[in-house]
What does this fold into?
Amino acid sequence: MMIFLAKSSSIVSSIPPETVPVIIILVSIVAFTIIIERSIYYKRFKSLLPEDLRSLKELIKGQKWDESVDHVKNKSWGATTSVLVGLIEHRRRDSEYLEDELKTEAYKQIFQMEKFLTELGTIATISPLLGVLGTVLGMIRSFAEGTGTKGAEVGISEALITTAMGISVAIPAYVFYNVLVRKKEERISELENVSSQILPLLEK
It folds into this structure.
């Protein structure tokens, strides 16, 4: 059965040896693009310091909406900034549904923070599997061609290269996936904490 799979007219023999390595290279490009983009995105985040948050509360108590918006924008950047600015603007317009507006904007910002993370996690998972696939195809090709032949050498080379490539992509992808998920969780916690302090002031 194995010999049939790898002989010249079989499915395995019709797949060029470089197919799986090329797929792994393409997957790695996607992974590292996501890592760079998300790293830059989270690097730009700037949290409100405790003293800046206290100043914001005083401005809100005084209903100084323009100063409050400027203060938030100048002292922070990121999901929390967008949510706070949106809340203040809705309060300025005397919206009766501040909590609903908070949830809507928060969901939008959480979605933005989670962008591409699922794809990165998927790549971290499937990269070793692609390496195993290349290994299996290479070994089938090698056994079918016979020891010492050119085809056997190609098959063994394919098996070793794809295994190494798959692991080389999976390790950094998995590490950065966990790092980025941790950053996302920290920002969500910050968003929940600050919003819970500011919303009651705006609802008064």
